[in-house]
Specification:
The protein is mainly α. It has helices at about 1-5, 10-45, 60-80, 90-115, 120-140, 150-175, 180-205, 220-245, 270-300, 315-335, and strands at about 210-215, 215-220. The longest helix has about 35 residues, at about 10-45.
């Protein structure tokens, strides 16, 4: 056995670590998918009432708020511990940054679910972002010995990256029409893109070893990126047929329509399936860019993972970075095409 391990270039200890890491990654992925399926069922099945997106949609909002807050903790910890970053972040600045990331999603949801203020959620978040940015600037001025301009700018970026993008996710969850289809596209597009990149990359990288971005992520290959694009397309197709089979399109019902959830198509420009395929393809591109950008942050900070909350995946940002990047594209697509 030891001889076989040596011939394969792996020691028994390294081989055991590799299998343990893969097992942890698989278990975490299974839990992740299970939670998302539960959230989808809640959103689909719990009656809407007067809540834009349905009472069941609040489960997704809770997840997105957690991503925002935990992601902010991870981001600030990484850049503060970064070697040679040359920035200082004071305790008040850290508190202000995390506070905004904690209130951004609830503020948006509270404004959107009230019928009289529906549509003003982004305005409320924009005002809050401005106020919190001014607070960061004030703390930088009056506590300059323990803060720096670079640190202040990093805090502002953290509020955008973790807080505002999480609001984009929540906005998808509360679209006036097709929010269910958009959530399915977001989830299936990003997950299958990651899965396709991993499967095709790990299988064919020894035959096609060309690196995608060797300076940022040496393990990512061009063939893996192709697998990600194929996975994104597959995610678009899967999201479309789930909506088509279980909700129907406009007045057309294929199997069943429960709780009046269906795909509303108004634009005659593209066939719905083609639209989902194109959105899935673009979602994969954004997903991979988001993943590479996260790799750039980690390389600058000198850390392997943003956190260790999710075994086999690292931190929350390591898992949700691609979804945060996809949020703007999915929101724009389902807000304009359909």
């Amino acid at each position: 056995m030891a001889q076989q391990a040596q011939n394969s270039g792996l020691t028994p200890v390294n081989n055991e670590k590799k299998h343990s890491s893969l097992r942890a990654r698989t278990i975490t992925s299974a839990v992740y998918v299970t939670v998302w399926v539960i959230m989808v069922v809640m959103k689909w099945c719990i009656p809407h009432g007067n809540v834009n997106g349905g009472w069941g949609a609040l489960g997704f909002d809770a997840v997105f708020c957690a991503v925002s807050v935990i992601g902010a903790f991870e981001f600030l910890r990484a850049i503060e511990n970064g070697k040679g970053m040359g920035l200082r972040i004071s305790t008040p600045q850290r508190s202000v940054t995390i506070a905004f990331c904690a209130v951004a999603v609830p503020l948006y949801v509270l404004v959107e679910v009230v019928p009289e203020t529906t549509g003003a959620g982004f305005l409320a978040v924009a005002v809050a972002f401005t106020i919190y940015t001014m607070l960061l600037a004030a703390t930088s001025v009056f506590d300059h010995n323990r803060s720096s301009v670079k640190g202040t700018i990093s805090c502002i970026f953290c509020m955008l990256y973790c807080g505002v993008l999480a609001v984009m996710l929540s906005s998808i969850n509360h679209l006036g029409t097709n929010s269910m289809a958009a959530i399915l596209m977001l989830f299936m597009g990003s997950v299958l893109s990651d899965t396709g990149a991993f499967l095709l990359g790990s299988t064919l990288k020894k035959y096609v070893p060309l690196k995608l971005a060797p300076q940022l992520s040496p393990n990512k290959t061009v063939i893996g990126a192709v697998g990600g694009l194929l996975g994104g397309i597959a995610g678009g197709v899967l999201a479309f047929y789930v909506m088509y089979l279980l909700g129907g399109i406009n007045d057309e019902i294929f199997l069943v329509r429960f709780n009046e959830v269906f795909l509303s198509v108004k634009s005659p420009t593209f066939p719905p399936l083609l639209s989902f395929i194109l959105i899935g393809l673009c979602t994969s591109v954004m997903s991979q860019i988001g993943d590479l950008f996260e790799s750039a942050i980690k390389r600058e900070c000198g850390v392997k993972d943003m956190g260790n909350l999710l075994p086999g995946h690292g931190g929350v940002l390591d898992r949700f970075d691609s979804m945060l990047y996809c949020s703007v594209l999915v929101l724009f697509s389902f807000g304009t095409i359909f």
